[in-house]
Write a structure and sequence with these properties.
binds ligand AN7, 10 strands, single chain, 6-stranded mixed sheet, alpha/beta, 4-stranded parallel sheet, 15 helices
Length: 360
């Protein structure tokens, strides 16, 4: 009988995979949950809406260990915090950063602290921070106010700030740009992405630019960023004092990486536009029902954006839409957008079940 041999090909996590591009040495104590290598899923339902031979893929960052792209930056930020001898980390968050911080800090044996806008973090994200043992505190204020406070705390106490002002965050996140090129066998024409604090769009641009500088690709994509209409400071060109959107992850009025994002948009000849909550929810349903990917309510902003601004997409383009987080973190939105009201049981009886399901 012929025998086959298995060879181990376990994904090593993104620091190991892209070590040559990252600020680590052989001595750096890598803290990883094997993040990265997320699926690039074809989205024919979105292609049909746009037509003209346009190819659309969804980069499903919700497939990361804590369910969002934040794990890419967090593996680097926590690794470098441990390397520097830090014993505690802190962040302000609309939810995903804190879920990721809590997991990686717990793994590394660091204390973690989270300050967040009361009433505006999805239930699943808070549950993660609690499960991983973070110390959390809601404030009567928005994300921007929370960030100002944790910046002050980290400036005066020996606690490392792991929001994206921490440069190691973007270093980790840029690997998503490498991955997209590796998976497609080249760069896409357009990278569409939701924008809140504007760290991720800046990090992707850094990744694409470095891959080009090192000769792995011969061109870079246009960066198309999408903000929620009620929280669109970069689109409007001024901070938004009281940002509002159903996509609480991107309910941010004063983006930290505003200037980096502006540079990425200019250098890539991209665009930054606003999509309404209604458009975001339509795209949420399309993604969940016809593509099979339920995203964090911020995630479909990328899909809403390319369909809204389809007139600017050249025929035959290849587009990657980043879905930045997993929809399971926000069950309330999933239930509400379904349009299904309260579920009441019927008798455990064949006829009753068939009647209730409309199957007779
Ligand atoms: C799902 O977790 O800011 O433009 O504190 O969770 O890099 O800020 C989250 C942001 C998009 C925006 N999609 O990314 C936080 C936080 C999801 C997010 C964004 C976030 P950036």
């Amino acid at each position: 009988m012929q025998t086959t041999t298995l060879s181990a090909n376990r994904w090593p996590g993104l620091i190991e995979r892209y070590r040559a591009f990252l600020p680590v040495t052989a001595e750096t104590p890598v803290i990883t949950l094997m993040e990265g290598n997320t699926p690039l899923v074809p989205a024919p339902a979105v292609e049909r809406l746009i037509g003209r031979g346009v190819k659309v893929f969804v980069k499903t960052e919700g497939a990361n260990p804590t369910g969002s792209f934040k794990d890419r930056g967090m593996t680097m930020a926590i690794t470098k915090a441990v390397e520097a001898g830090s014993e505690a980390v802190i962040c302000a968050s609309t939810g995903n950063t804190s879920a990721s911080m809590a997991a990686y800090a717990g793994r590394a044996g660091l204390r973690s602290y989270l300050v967040f806008p009361h009433g505006y973090v999805a239930a699943g994200k808070l549950a993660q921070a609690l499960a991983h043992g973070s110390n959390l505190l809601p404030i009567s204020g928005n994300f921007d106010a929370a960030l100002a406070i944790v910046r002050e705390i980290s400036a005066t106490l020996p606690i490392t700030l792991v929001n994206s002002v921490n440069p190691f965050r973007l270093e980790g996140q840029k690997t998503a740009g490498f991955e997209v090129c590796d998976q497609l066998g080249g760069p896409p024409d357009i990278l569409a992405i939701p924008v809140g604090n504007a760290g991720n769009i800046s990090a992707y641009w850094k990744g694409f630019s470095e891959y080009k500088a090192k000769g792995f690709v011969d061109r870079t994509p246009q960066m198309w960023g999408f903000q929620a209409d009620g929280a669109a400071p970069i689109v409007r060109g001024e901070p938004v004092e009281n940002p509002q959107t159903i996509a609480t992850a991107i309910r941010i009025g004063k983006p930290t990486s505003w200037h980096l994002a502006t540079a990425a948009l200019a250098e890539s000849q991209g665009r930054i536009e606003a999509v309404t909550d209604g458009e975001i929810l339509e795209a949420y349903k399309l993604l969940a029902r016809e593509v099979g990917v339920v995203g964090d309510p911020a995630s479909p902003a990328s899909v809403a954006g390319i369909t809204k601004f389809a007139a600017f997409i050249p025929d035959g383009s290849t587009i990657v839409c980043v879905t930045t987080g997993h929809g399971l973190k926000d069950p309330d939105t999933a239930v509400k957008t379904s349009g299904v009201g309260e579920l009441t049981p019927v008798a455990a009886d064949l006829d009753a079940v068939k009647r209730a399901l409309g199957l007779n």
